[in-house]
Amino acid sequence: MTTTGTQPAETIRTPDQRIRVFVSSTLGELAEERRVVRAAIERLHLAPVMFELGARPHPPRELYRAYLRQSHVFLGIYHQRYGWVAPGEAISGLEDEFRLSEGMPRLLYLKRPAAAIEPRLQAMLDAVSAQGSASYRQFTDSTELAALVEDDLAALLSERFMAQSPGAATFSSRELARPVPAPVPLTATVGRDADIAAVAELLGQDVRLVTVTGPGGVGKTRLALEVARAVAGRFADGVAFVPLEDVPGPELVLPALAAALRLPEAGTRPLLDRLVDELTGRQLLVVADNMEHLRAAGPDLTGLLGRCPRLALLVTSRQTLRLRGDHEYPLPPLPVPNDDQVTGDGAVDDVPAVSLFVQRAADVRPGFALTEDNRAAVTAIVRLLDGLPLAIELAAARSRLFPPTALAGRLAQRLDVLAGGAAGDLPARQRTLRATLDWSCQLLTPAEQALFARLSVFAGGATLGAVDAVCGDDTVSDVLDGVSSLLEKNLLFADAADEPRVGMLHVVRAYATDLLNERNEAERLSDRHALFYADLIEPADIIAHNDAPGSWPLLTREADNLLAAARWVATRGDIGVLAALARRLWPWLIYTGRVGELRDVVPAAVDAAADSREEDPGAREQAFLHHLALCYAQTQTGDHAAALASAERALTLAADTVDRETALLAAAVRLLRGALRLSLGETAGVADDLDSALDTARREDNAWLLGHATLHRGVWRALTGNTAGARADLEEAAGVATEMGHDVLLAQAVGHLATLDLLAGDLEESLSRLRSQIEHLRRARNLEGLATALDTTAALASQQQRWETAARAAAAADALRERVGLPARPVTRDLHDAAVDATLQRLGDRAPAIRAAASEADPWVLVDDVLAQLAGAPYASRGH
């Protein structure tokens, strides 16, 4: 290899220095596999690092840790044994080695079958799958393993080489936030091996859209989860799970996908285009679960697939989506004993439907097993239920009370009673499931039946406190006992967390919703639900509480219930409750990028309130609150002209109000009106609006209003030449934001101070503040703020005459604003334009290529690299 005088000198290594591959596995169990893996590594002229390759005078734990530190690739082989746990240690050396390999390229291999796999090893592998931190491949013998290892190592080395080649850091290599992982089933999946293999094979044949169809309760979701686990190793960017059962309309499917990908919402640019930007070049499997009520969103999904050639979609639905390119996989019920098997001794024991019943019955009645006495009854039960897994599980739960013979008799009678009661257009199996659920409900006490129906009002589950407050009354006097009974009967599931939550399978919730309507309680319970959640999040009211951001984790946990409550009261036209919900939700919605989820609710409520404003002063006040919420939603998405009109309308509606709360909110509107005028290039009235808001904030001691008023007045003073006043305001805003724990506000204040330092010629202090700003923006994943920070970074690079660095930062800022659909901030717009002009002049013909590469790069990675160059020393990237 030769180098030119302009290239940096490369390290010249001696021929004995090779890539080291650390091999981790249990020793005796996988001795043959270790031998063939060593040979495969050596055939590639790499260096295997293995515990048994030489005796060393060191304790085993110190030895393998030292070996790992000096290795480049981690290769794990697992079968059934978890490995030895040393005295005083909590985990085995096998798991310790895996954990210590964090940050290294990992190649993992599982030997199958593994019928006697030890529980701790299974738990370790499940955790790996759930966290999405690594993927693995399966093998059956040492010959297959050797081929896999050799191919995978060769591919890994090729990828690493190409990643270091010029031009490799393109938009397709930017890092996404880790998608929401697919949940791991808590119980074994029975009788679906062939189905799992068939769907996995479809996804391996260049098929990119597979829909698993079947009646409710047949096990579509479980199958999709198992397929996702089986094929995860084929998708370099992992698996994203998108639950759709609580998504009310097809227009919210893409927002649900964006949420699963943790894509922040901002700007007016179409969400489909933004998703394409994020997913182009990504090798990702998306599992969209329960889409039967959202078929109208099918064209959006096919559009996404058409523009993202490495994306694959696995959908579950009760009916086919009828989409071009879709491969439907009808999932049948579990096989049940046929007539010949029923008459044969023991012939039914291994039939999947029977196995499922036996396993689930043993869960609730330890020691339960199939015997000569109960075999015929169990066979009758699963045949009566047509092999539907959910129906079988619900029936098996009754084994605590009824022996199989009694259970079969009761079920047969109930099915006969309901034979003509179900809708004639429903499939027979769906009528059977409905009968099973109906029968299960009839076994409940009257109080349990009422509680079961009322629990359907919750979306995404609920805490026990919420259940008690919403569902309890004279009919349901002991909510805790009722919940415990429903859990035992498998009509609820529990989510073990710091604060326990209970929820329903979606098909059970749909059935319970029908019962609630039949009881004529849906309206009353939905009202109670909305009032409860409006009161629950009162601490998140930024007007009433300076520490409101501390309540935002609660809003995140209860997001589904809160959004469902807002939609319900909007439908009801309950202006007061919706106003309370909207006011307490919108700062959190903006911070988390979820404004769009209520954007369809607020305008309708505004119109309803405005229509009655002349006759009802209370409605006029509520209309003011809704215009305020609408104004903030429009501001967040970049529609500043519409936002300014909403602000004007809100202030007109509030003109005659005198109470303290409305006065604070009106001050917030004036603050926002001043900021909007500033962004639109208007100067008249800006100072008056900002000074008025700040006076109110100080008088009423409101932290949120004070922080934002000082921030915006600082920007205004900077633009009008009052640098000293601007610094004082921005320092105060930063202090208020720190006390509130508001990362976005703090990042904005620090960023503007960095700009002032730059203009004053203090480049070192400006760079220091930029680093701080980036860290706060990264925590909030705030893209608009990052674009503004890149503007300042470009100007700083120009000051240092680092023209290529300046061009990269400015181009990344432009690309980011195009993605989110937001204009440049006035305070940095001139700096940005000057940096672009200077770089174009200095770089000449090189500029377009430099800007194009920067536009395609991950902006979080790029800004770290640019700041490191400006500092003249490495600046470690944080997690992106």
Could you write a compact summary of the structure shown?
The chain has 880 residues and is of the alpha/beta class.
What does this 3D model show about the protein?
- The chain is of the alpha/beta class and about 900 residues long.
- Strands 2-1-3-4-5 form a five-stranded parallel sheet, sandwiched between helices. Strands 7-8-9-6-10 form a five-stranded parallel sheet, sandwiched between helices. Strands 11-13-12 form a three-stranded antiparallel sheet.
- It starts with 19 loop residues before the first strand and ends in a 9-residue tail after the last helix.
- Mean pLDDT is about 80; it is low at about 1-10, about 55-60, about 165-175, about 415-430 and about 875-880.
Which properties best describe this structure?
880 residues; 57% helix; five-stranded parallel β-sheet; disordered N terminus; 13 strands; alpha/beta
Mean pLDDT: 82
What is the helix content?
55-70%
Number of helices: 39
Radius of gyration: 31 Å
Strand content: 5-15%
Low-confidence residue ranges: 1-11, 54-58, 165-175, 414-432, 873-880
- Biggest pleated sheet: 5 strands, parallel
The tally of strands reads 13
Cα shape: globular
Category by helix and strand content: alpha/beta
- Side-by-side strand order of the widest sheet: 2-1-3-4-5
Distance between the termini: 35 Å
Structural topology:
Blueprint: E1 20-24, H1 31-43, E2 47-49, H2 60-69, E3 73-78, H3 93-100, E4 106-111, H4 119-131, E5 136-139, H5 142-163, H6 193-203, E6 209-213, H7 220-231, E7 239-243, H8 253-260, H9 271-279, E8 284-289, H10 298-307, E9 311-317, E10 327-330, H11 339-342, H12 352-364, H13 375-384, H14 389-397, H15 404-417, H16 428-442, H17 446-454, E11 462-463, H18 464-471, H19 479-488, E12 493-495, E13 501-503, H20 506-518, H21 522-536, H22 552-557, H23 559-572, H24 575-592, H25 596-599, H26 602-611, H27 617-636, H28 640-653, H29 660-679, H30 686-700, H31 703-719, H32 723-740, H33 743-759, H34 763-780, H35 783-799, H36 803-820, H37 826-843, H38 847-856, H39 859-871
Parallel strand pairs: 1-2, 1-3, 3-4, 4-5, 6-9, 6-10, 7-8, 8-9
Antiparallel strand pairs: 11-13, 12-13
Helix pairs in contact: 1-5, 6-7, 12-13, 12-14, 13-15, 14-16, 17-19, 17-20, 18-21, 21-23, 21-24, 23-24, 24-27, 26-27, 27-28, 27-29, 28-29, 29-30, 29-31, 30-31, 31-32, 31-33, 32-33, 33-34, 33-35, 34-35, 34-39, 35-36, 35-37, 35-39, 36-37, 36-38, 36-39
